[in-house]
Specification:
- The longest helix is centred in the last third of the chain and has 22 residues.
- The two termini are 40 Å apart.
- The strands form three sheets. This protein has a five-stranded mixed β-sheet with strand order 5-6-1-7-8. Strands 9-12-10-11 form a four-stranded antiparallel β-sheet.
- The chain is α+β, with helices and mostly antiparallel strands.
- It binds magnesium ion (MG).
- Magnesium ion (MG) binds next to strand 1.
């Protein structure tokens, strides 16, 4: 089993502002976008939340509810800077840190020496609760280190996978620490409304309610086929969420981790036999791979094409180039050449392109926090929401800030 922690900063933007202006500590404070335009507030600290303030509320409404509120203009560059500082702290506890948004990250602690040094050495024979509980001292140490080095509070959730860890961190805030096994997760969330699940928004809640699914427990036990019928792939995801199942790995995502390869693959919605369509997908995949390599500052020499046919047989073919590169055009041309040489026209259901034999060219575009790769959609959404709150200046890459 895995041991995953989700670290979520408490009222991040507001906390950073409080730290800059210590005389405001403990008083209601909200961070806004452009205060002259009297827009909406982007974040509220906990004293302000007691008045019912929350992100997205208009500043007018916020001031009506809480006349003594201090409004501070948001400073995204400062937040990005602190965010990177926090990532550095997290990397002291495991190399497998996945920044998830400006104020959240996943950590895979499974192989952590600190965890191993505890008396739970043999994961397979231990009760999962014991293994997860062994992460408590690490979680506490992380909270203390963040507080000591940045002055900010953090909440940690621990679970056997990313989904449960993320849900656990929402159970008790601020400065909370919650450990949930799969069993405890179900006990805790099954009686609750489906909107409590991460990923289920208002629209989906309404759609589920129409089917008579109001609680997480009902969702867990609703016939799988009906969920798929109504929601397609998302039906499966929702059901997995209700059961606390998630086999997604924590993907370390910052400069400095030596990667073996970078690639993308794509499952086709119908089996495809048209070379033209396949080439179009390869172009898109090559483009994603090239872009991500450039963003992270890698060049590579070996291009691999992966094909899976309609009978689920998988083939990979690779070619070494004379020089390491990160150019999508070259990746694409090589992938298409491999296709033409090896494909006999049989129907395909999955395509993949990757580049390996990687080396760093030291030109990473910092921070990978703001990568736009397909796998990072959620991150992009978080950054987009930052942009909505603060305007485009929020997207200044941290490298520019140094
Ligand atoms: Mg937060």
């Amino acid at each position: 089993m895995r041991v995953v922690a989700h670290v979520d900063m408490d009222a991040f933007f507001a906390a950073v502002e409080e730290r800059m202006n210590p005389h405001l500590a403990g008083k209601p404070l909200a961070v806004g976008g452009d205060l002259k335009r009297r827009g909406v507030i982007a974040a509220a600290n906990y004293p302000a939340r007691k008045y019912g303030l929350h992100a997205g509320m208009s500043t007018g409404e916020a001031l009506r509810l809480c006349p003594e509120l201090t409004l501070v203009e948001g400073n995204p560059q400062k937040y990005v800077h602190v965010s990177l500082q926090i990532l550095e702290i997290l990397k002291d506890y495991t190399p497998i840190v996945e920044p998830f948004s400006i104020d959240e990250a996943f950590l895979d602690l499974t192989g952590s020496p600190r965890l191993k040094a505890s008396r739970w050495n043999d994961y397979d024979t231990q009760d999962s609760a014991d293994v997860l509980d062994a992460a408590i001292p690490i979680a506490r140490a992380i909270q203390r280190a963040i507080l000591r080095k940045t002055g900010l509070g953090a909440t940690v959730g621990v679970g056997p996978n990313k989904y449960i860890a993320k849900m656990a961190s929402g159970v008790q805030k601020p400065r909370g620490l919650t450990v949930l096994t799969q069993e405890r997760y179900r006990e805790h969330f099954w009686p609750k409304g489906v909107q409590e699940l991460w990923g289920i928004g208002e629209k989906t809640r309404v759609a589920l309610e129409k089917l008579g699914i109001s609680t997480v427990g009902k969702l867990a036990h609703f016939p799988k086929e009906f969920l798929t019928y109504h929601f397609g792939m998302n039906g499966d995801h929702m059901r997995d969420a209700a059961w606390g199942r998630d086999d997604g790995a924590v993907i370390p995502y910052y400069e400095g981790i030596p990667l073996k390869s970078m690639g993308h693959e794509f499952t086709l919605s119908v089996d495809v036999t048209s070379r033209e369509k396949i080439a179009a997908h390869l172009l898109r995949l090559s483009d994603q791979v090239g872009r991500r390599m450039r963003q992270d500052g890698y060049v590579g020499r070996v291009v691999t094409l992966k094909l899976r046919d309609s009978k689920f047989k998988t083939y990979t073919r690779q070619r070494s180039l004379s020089e390491a590169m990160n150019d999508e055009e070259q990746i694409y041309r090589t992938a298409v050449a491999l296709l033409d040489e090896n494909w006999d026209g049989r129907p395909l259901r999955l395509l993949g392109v990757s580049v390996s034999d990687l080396s760093s060219n030291g030109e990473a575009i910092q921070p990978s926090l703001f990568d736009e790769d397909e796998h990072r959609k959620k991150m992009t959404a978080a950054v987009d929401s930052l942009r909505d709150r603060f305007g485009d200046s929020a997207l200044v890459r941290a490298g520019v800030l140094e």
